[in-house]
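As a warm-up, study this chain.
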Amino acid sequence: MTVTPEPAASRRPLTIVMAADTFAPDVNGGARFTERLSAGLAGRGHDVHVVTPSVGYRNHGVFTEHIEDQDLTVHRLPGVRWAPHDWLRFVWPWRAKHYARRILSEVKPDVVHSQSHIVIGRGLTRIARERGIPVVATNHIMADNILDFTLLPKFLYDVFLKLAWADAERTFKMSRAVTTPTRKAAEFLEATIDISGVVPISCGIDKRNYTPDRTPRKHSRVLFVGRLTTEKHIEVVLQAIAKLAPELPDITFDVVGGGDQRKNLDQWTERLNLGDRVTFHGRVDEATLRASYGKADVFAIASVAELQSIVTMEAMASGLPVVGANAVALPHLIHDGENGYLFEPGNVDDLADKLRRVLTAPQEEYDRMQQASLDGIEAHDIERTLDTFEKLYRGEPLES
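Now compare it with the structure written out below.
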């Protein structure tokens, strides 16, 4: 598609449709990014419409919802709960194009931004293309992450992945631009499907929302924030905590978030005799979440499927050293020996060693890691993210 950039002087507000298979009240990286991006754009004067499944099949309609201190127009389509998952809802795929036609006719957007190529984004992309409406697509998904919830036997996994990525490729090729949160994630996408020119754009974070605690103290509190799902490998952190407990008698582990693996993790905690050291807080509100970062001494993430990891950025903005798996996009945020350490994925001994280094570091060394996290988050300022997406929406060239 040939795009004529809008003259800089005209800078009129845009009408933007966000296609989101997951959105508030869901708690995951894709949902949180869509919330922050949509609210940030609304704060700049744009008319943002979010299209997402309803909570409860009959609770559909068009609502004004207060998200991140902004009022957004949210089109809640009839959502069906996916039983194998603890919160996932979806729209019947064969209705997606019908809803897309109706919403695009009502809203008449300047651009569609698809946050997922699965159902809603897929439908809106196809109808927008038919009508000559430009589409920007962001990939937050690793197809492998949804295998556990397909109910397919394992011998069909490879077939499923091949079909899923083939459909993603068709959808992405209908878009003006395809983005993903990091260069590593962009390289992964380009290597997985026949697509080039994927643009890495950080999900972004407003560091003003987080208050680092630089008070000298004894360090003992490990924190994880996120969904309790298999790809997060929280059991690896639990085993590392158990290894460290004899030599670090005050060590504790706070787990913030909900998910389908909670019962399994409770069993791990019991087997490892960690009942007095591990606290599962479940889902919490934003104020409690920020307070959790402030109380912690180190953030630990063993996930092997992060395309960026917003929670890691939140931890860094809170001035926490981070210990994370050396996998996918985490090395983009965690610089080994600077703001924390990377460990070999799944290696409990290596993780325990890296946590030990942080928790037993002299205060001067700990302060240095804190500052490195705060310095590292500067490149992920949400205002930069908003600037970049505005340029993509308007068809303007990006800085190289």
